[in-house]
Amino acid sequence: MAIDAPENVQIIRETVAADSTRIAGYGFKVTKLSTGKYTLTFNNDFAETPSVAATLDGDDWKLLDNAHVCDATTERVTVRTGNSNGEVGDRPFHFVAMG
Length: 99
Prior knowledge:
By secondary structure, the chain is mainly beta. The chain has a single domain (11-98), classed as Immunoglobulin-like (Sandwich), CATH 2.60.40. The chain has strands at 11-16, 22-24, 28-34, 37-42, 51-56, 66-72, 76-82, 93-98. It has a 4-stranded antiparallel beta sheet with strand order 2-1-8-5, with no helix packed on it. It has a 4-stranded antiparallel beta sheet with strand order 3-4-7-6, with no helix packed on it.
C-alpha cells in the first residue's frame, strides 16, 4: 500500500540487535560505536533531514530502559540505548526514518 502524501517521502525501517546485527529492514548499514551507541548510515541519502523515532525491541526491558535518537542528518542517524538507571547499555531497537 502506498502512502498518499503531498511530498515524495522516503521511509527506512530497521530492527537492530544489541550487538548491532540487522534483524530486519534494508537500506542502511549499522556501526556500533561504543556501548549503547549505534550509527545507522543510509544507503541513499534523504533529500532533507528525516523525522526519526527509535524504541526498544522485546519485552525483557523495564519501562525506564530507553532508546533515543541523538543526532540525525540526511546521511545517517545515531541512536543511544540505555538501562533503567539512566546508564548507557546495549539494547535491541526498532528505528523508522521518514523524510
